[in-house]
Design goal:
Blueprint (H helix, E strand, L loop, with lengths): L1 H32 L3 H23 L4 H6 L1 E5 L8 H16 L18 H6 L1 E5 L16 H14 L15 H11 L10 H41 L1
Antiparallel strand pairs: 1-2
Helix pairs in contact: 1-2, 1-8, 2-4, 2-8, 6-7
Main location: membrane
Pfam families: RDD
Organism: Microbacterium sorbitolivorans
């Protein structure tokens, strides 16, 4: 629990630090390049855009801070990504909880010891490790062993054209015939066992790379949009 809370705290510090730095720069540029209500409106719009991008990144599975801390936001029921509207509600509840101070520390009050805050419980969310994979139960596919196949072939060869007993009809197996059949067929090669665990790990790695590229693309798009807004303000001066 404490390890996950520490990773969540690291993610929050990184994300809030980025938002604060970018918002301060945008606000300072807008305030220095324009006067009056237009500048205030542009500054508020830019900050709102950053918060919107933050919610989008959370709904996509991770923000820059979450990528560094190697955690992701998921649905408690399914383990899949959280819907956008649930992310928005979660952040509103988190902000309201921080306004009364105690809400920001609600992750320490989880009776189940899972480190879920009020904002997580309000929308059925959970913060998990990015390496966690939700899928079918793990297990291995048991291969067909060589001695079994060899013994089966040897029995078939030994039982061919052999005299039968009067009682049970079981063929009289000659030891020499068994030895020759075993040497002829030889032991079969044991197939390589492919476990569901290894397949799940590869799928998780590919999904993590895709999410990282999506996060970088959305974040880069947000920076471009903010730059365009500032450029339009400068042109209109």
């Amino acid at each position: 629990m404490h390890t996950m809370i520490g990773r969540r705290s690291l993610a929050y510090v990184i994300d809030l630090g980025l938002i604060a730095i970018i918002s301060a720069l945008v606000w300072w540029l807008v305030a220095s390049l324009s006067d009056g209500s237009a500048g205030w409106f542009a500054g508020i719009a830019s900050v709102a855009l950053l918060l919107l991008v933050y919610c989008i990144l959370q709904s996509r599975g991770g923000t820059p801070g979450m990528l560094v801390a190697k955690v992701r936001l998921a649905s408690e029921e399914t383990g899949d990504r959280l819907a956008f509207w649930r992310v928005v509600v979660r952040n509103i509840v988190w902000a309201a909880g921080c306004a009364i101070v105690i809400g920001g520390f609600s992750v320490f009050f989880d009776s189940l010891g899972r480190g879920r805050g009020w904002h997580d419980k309000s929308v059925g969310a959970v913060v998990v490790s990015r390496t966690a994979f939700s899928g079918p139960a793990t297990g291995s596919i048991k291969p067909v062993t060589g001695p079994t196949a060899t013994a089966s072939k040897a029995t078939m060869v030994a039982g061919k054209d052999q005299p039968r007993t009067k009682s049970g009809g079981v063929p009289l197996v000659d030891t020499a015939t068994l030895r020759i059949a075993s040497q002829t067929t030889g032991p079969t090669k044991e197939p390589r066992a492919i476990t569901r665990t290894s397949l799940s790990a590869m799928e998780a790695q590919r999904a993590s790379r895709r999410k990282t590229m999506n996060v970088l693309a959305v974040f880069g798009g947000a920076v471009v949009i903010v730059a365009v807004v500032i450029a339009l303000i400068v042109i209109n001066l």
